[in-house]
């Protein structure tokens, strides 16, 4: 999940509303906001207009951008108006900088109702702009698991090669029983269960190095086991030279090669791809 920092001057209205709105699209997002000259408190009008749309920012506090200079962000987004001289420049590590200008509603003058209207208008402008940002940048690149398609096979082969895994016989049952993780159109994870009689062979479990350690491997394995249960398989077997500990966490158990059913043993993956030193594991379903 990307880390996002939203900046304005006081961190009391625009950046706080943007933070609340962005989090409302996906609570798993790590969104922070800060200002170059943090105000004493969040503007009560910002709290009020956010409450009107069901987003509670009462506990938010203005923070100094200095707090985050040592941290890395995927996106830093400035939300001050184009005319403001003090629009902050973030000096920390950033993959992408974006500037979405909004007028400062706190600068609005007139009756209380006119001022509140100015806050509502800016809130809604921020909502539209950040929703577009979320759809185009965040959701599109969030890894998603889906059934494999025939057209995924070459990308799956490349991923397996990158992960130092063989792709022998991959085409024999692909895409049936295979799932992939898609990240913005790029294939970053794969796993498949091949069927041999009443048993399954879990093979080609791989996650691109830059996506490891984020739960994609476990997700793929769980998803393939559910698939195997739906197909009423008796047990699932696998061979691994590098990840026995990972599969132990997924409830697989080492078995003797003699205990592996004939059909699984005759498969191309089992007989050709895996060296004799590989650990054979199984999970009864
Ligand atoms: C094995 C692999 C698929 C794991 O994918 P991943 O997305 O990094 O795994 P997850 O993030 O879902 O990890 C789940 C848990 O297993 C642990 N884990 C991951 N890889 C591990 C490994 N190789 N050995 C031991 N534990 C491992 C993680 O630390 C995590 O533990 P946690 O829940 O306590 O944090 C990935 O490392 C990979 O592609 N390796 C190269 C190819 C390979 O060896 N495939 C298996 C042979 S078929």
Q: How is this structure best summarized?
A:
The protein has helices at residues 14-25, 44-52, 112-138, 153-162, 216-230, 244-249, 262-265, 268-273, and strands spanning 3-8, 30-35, 72-78, 93-99, 144-147, 178-183, 186-196, 199-207, 235-240, 253-254, 279-284. It has 285 residues and is α/β, with parallel strands linked by helices.
Please render the helix and strand layout as text.
Blueprint: E1 3-8, H1 14-25, E2 30-35, H2 44-52, E3 72-78, E4 93-99, H3 112-138, E5 144-147, H4 153-162, E6 178-183, E7 186-196, E8 199-207, H5 216-230, E9 235-240, H6 244-249, E10 253-254, H7 262-265, H8 268-273, E11 279-284
Parallel strand pairs: 1-2, 1-3, 3-4, 8-9
Antiparallel strand pairs: 5-6, 6-7, 7-8, 9-11, 10-11
Helix pairs in contact: 1-3, 2-3
The structure holds coenzyme A.
Number of strands: 11
CATH topology-level name of the largest domain: Aminopeptidase
Largest sheet: 7 strands, mixed
Element-by-element helix/strand order: EHEHEEHEHEEEHEHEHHE
The ligands found in this model are: coenzyme A
Helix content: 25-40%
Structural class: alpha/beta
In the CATH hierarchy, the architecture of the largest domain is 3-Layer(aba) Sandwich
Radius of gyration: 26 Å
Task: Give the overall average pLDDT.
Answer: 93
Report the β-strand fraction as a percent range.
15-25%
**Residue ranges: pLDDT <50 for 5 or more in a row?**
none
With strands numbered from the N-terminus, the spatial order across the biggest sheet is: 5-6-7-8-9-11-10
The CATH fourth-level homologous superfamily of the largest domain? Gcn5-related N-acetyltransferase (GNAT)
Number of helical stretches of at least 4 residues: 8
Number of domains: 2
- Ends apart, CA distance between termini: 33 Å
Name of the level-1 CATH class of the largest domain: Alpha Beta
Shape: elongated
């Amino acid at each position: 999940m990307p880390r996002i920092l939203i900046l304005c001057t006081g961190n009391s209205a625009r950046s706080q509303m943007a933070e609340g709105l962005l989090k409302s699209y996906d609570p798993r997002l790590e969104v922070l906001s800060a200002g170059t000259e943090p105000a004493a408190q969040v503007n009560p009008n910002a709290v009020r207009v956010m409450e009107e749309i069901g987003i509670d920012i009462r506990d938010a506090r203005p923070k100094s951008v200095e707090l985050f200079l040592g941290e890395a962000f995927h996106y830093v987004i400035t939300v001050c108006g184009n005319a403001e001289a003090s629009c902050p420049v973030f000096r920390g590590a950033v993959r992408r900088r974006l500037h979405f200008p909004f007028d400062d509603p706190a600068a609005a003058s007139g009756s209380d109702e006119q001022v509140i209207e100015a806050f509502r208008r800016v809130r809604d402008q921020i909502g539209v702009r950040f929703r577009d940002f979320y759809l185009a940048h965040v959701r599109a690149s969030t890894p998603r698991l889906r059934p494999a398609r025939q057209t995924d096979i070459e990308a799956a082969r490349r991923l397996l090669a990158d992960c130092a895994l063989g792709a022998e016989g991959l085409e024999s049952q692909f895409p049936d029983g295979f799932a992939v993780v898609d990240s913005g159109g790029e294939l970053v994870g794969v796993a498949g269960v091949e069927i041999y009689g009443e048993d399954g062979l879990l093979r080609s479990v791989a996650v691109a190095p830059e996506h490891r350690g984020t739960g994609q491997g476990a997700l793929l394995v769980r998803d393939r086991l559910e698939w195997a249960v739906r197909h009423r398989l008796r047990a699932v077997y696998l061979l691994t030279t590098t990840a026995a500990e990972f599969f132990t966490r997924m409830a697989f158990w080492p078995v003797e090669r003699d205990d592996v059913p004939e059909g699984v043993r005759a498969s191309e993956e089992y007989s050709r791809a895996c060296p004799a030193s590989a650990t054979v594991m199984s999970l009864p379903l």
